[in-house]
Amino acid sequence: MTQSLILTKYFFLLIFFGVLLGIVSCGNNAKVYEAPISGQPQKVSAARGETTNADSSALADDEVQRLLQEHNRVRLAVGVGPVSWSSDLAEYAQQWAGQLAGSGCRMEHRPTEGEWKGIYGENLFTGTAGYYDVGDGVEAWESEKRYFKGDAVTLANVQQVGHYTQLVWRRTTQVGCGKAECQGRIILVCNYAPPGNVVDEVPY
Predict the structure, then answer these.
(1) What number of H helices and E strands is found in the chain?
(2) Using 50, 70 and 90 to split pLDDT, how confident is the model at 112?
(3) Which of 42, 124, 132, 177 has the fewest CB neighbours in a 10 Å radius?
(4) Of all helices (H) and strands (E), which one includes residue 185?
(5) pLDDT at residue 11 in the model
């Protein structure tokens, strides 16, 4: 085999495994859901180009209730039991929401290793502050239901339905969320335990 052919095969394998690792790094999280930027009037708590810290954007009591109601509404629709609110998960989610806001509104899931390693299921949403609220985040994740055919979760379909399947994962019993604002947008992070979207398993 010629040296050029060996190098070609080597680079192809590097690209293939790079793509595969990129998919696996989302793990049970699917892609990030970004709502379109709205032209509606905004109620922005952070000045343009600035970010707020995690504590100043933490969820209000009514937002916690809304998130819990919306999660359990979606779960009830398919006959799985309700989730309860976890203050530990909420603190965990708030830390990541603040980290994203403090990093220039970067939208990405927790990594698979290192200081910020993710150990729970995770859904992310971002949208214009003052137009989108936390309930819109859950509704956006729920909207993937139209693509779900009742199949087991795979590396191929988790990118399209992973937010929804995490919402309705039967073995998930707890949820906790955090919120931050950055450059006129809200960042919503919800974490789930036990995590859902286990490959080759059905959600319910």
Answers:
(1) 5, 5
(2) confident
(3) 42
(4) strand 185-193
(5) 36
Q: For the whole model, what pTM was predicted?
A: 0.75
**Dihedral angle computed from the Cα positions of residues 158, 159, 161 and 162, in that order, rounded to the nearest 10 degrees:** 60
The single-letter DSSP state of residue 12 is: H
Phi, psi of 162 (to 5 degrees): -65, -35
pLDDT score for 133: 96
Whether the pLDDT of residue 6 is over 50: the answer is no
The secondary structure element, H or E, covering residue 37 is none
79: left (phi over 0), alpha (psi -120 to 50) or beta: left
What is the C-alpha to C-alpha distance for residues 117 and 38, in angstroms, rounded to an integer?
32
Q: Which two tokens mark 101?
A: 């806001």
The two tokens of residue 110 are: 């927790």
What local confidence, expressed as pLDDT, does residue 34 receive?
56
By three-state DSSP, how is residue 152 classified?
coil
The contacts of residue 163 (CB under 8 Å, 6+ apart) are 30, 33, 123, 140, 141, 144
Q: For residue 19, what is the DSSP state? A: H
The DSSP result for 95-129, as a single string, is HHHHHHHTTTS---PPPSSSTT---SEEEEEEEEB
CA dihedral (62, 65, 67, 71) in degrees, to 10, reads -160
